Give the backbone structure.
Amino acid sequence: MATGNNLHLGEAKEWFTKLKVICARIYRPGMSLQGPVQIILGYVGNKNAAIGAAILSLIIAIWSFSLFATLFAILFSIVAITLIFVGAKIFFYTPEEISIDIADENTILSYVKDVHINGESEIVIHSQPGYGKEKNTFIILQLFDSISILDCRNITSISDKSYHDIAIQFFHPAENEYTISASSDEGSVGFEVILQTADQCRVKFLHPVRKIIRLDFMPS
């Protein structure tokens, strides 16, 4: 009997963790009102489709509360709204191409942000200045209203597992062992290395999560 209770408790904790991660992707502590809107628009990938999904969701929510008891109406609305936005993404999503002028460089960092249905987002870097094995490898991330790359070198992509759990792919495999350091103008940065191989790493930032963080990858 105790084993069965422990099993149900473990399942409940797992679902709670998943729900917490989803909520953290939509709203993070200190985020402005514009942040959740940008995240939802980025998820759907089409502004008109996102607006249409929001209007339809509002109509369904009002209708459900007029017909059902409060608890059932809330559950029904959550399920219906989720299906509406997932459907809007499936039928209308298009990758967003963005060009950013990098300071003190005469080139452009271009990338495509692809937000997958499972909630993870990936930024794939097409071009960058001064790359090569003889150059220092680094990346500067913004982790506030949305995940974005402010500057980088020798990085091909980042994947956003959650807003403080980032996987990074390198432009070329590291020939030697390397160390990872993190810094921010806002104060010290706590982080945990979950995965570290020659061509990728995965870093989880600890609270408090800074808005802008620089990661340097240096040969040991």
Remarks:
- The first helix runs from residue 2 to 26.
- Residues 18 and 166 are 17 Å apart (CA to CA).
- The two ends are 52 Å apart (CA to CA).
